[in-house]
Amino acid sequence: MPLNAPNILTLLRITLIPVFVIVYFLPVSWANAGTAGVFLLAALTDWLDGYLARRWNQSSAFGAFLDPVADKLMVATALIMIVANPRLHPLLLNAPLFSVVVLIIVGREIAVSALREWMAEVGKRKSVAVSVVGKFKTGAQMAAIFLLLYERPIIGIPAFRAGELLLYIAALLTLWSMGVYLKAAWPELTRGEDKDR
What domains lie within the chain, and their CATH numbers? Predict the structure, then answer.
């Protein structure tokens, strides 16, 4: 495991996950702001590690494996915390719908990870590389989770409601990007076993 700057940032992102879980459940007035701040820091390391890996030519197989794992752990943990918090249910427009949206997002992350792993095994990983829609989906998810964790109004804008609506948009982008990946992988998924394989 090369301990270069991008990989250290990815490891930092993973270590920040238990930190924002602990802060979220602290019985203090600044818990929401603290949790949102830690989550924002973790999200920024996601962008920075990729930037540094490209800029300094420090990409590695370990980083390529760990980076998406860290992202998915961070997103899934935050969404499950929000769904599991009964105090927030009355604040949601529709708590059951919100739970379904969270299931869609987490389920898609698992499915796409499995698809990418399988495509890598057949030598077609580049076919399911991150798409532009996937990047928009990630941005919408991160912004939505930050607002949901923060809860309080920001310059008069109800952050929690904005976060909820943005998460619904992220869920639509999630389904769209999954469709893009499935379309790219479909020829391999539907190909019969060749005799020479």
Answer: 5-186 (1.20.120.1760)
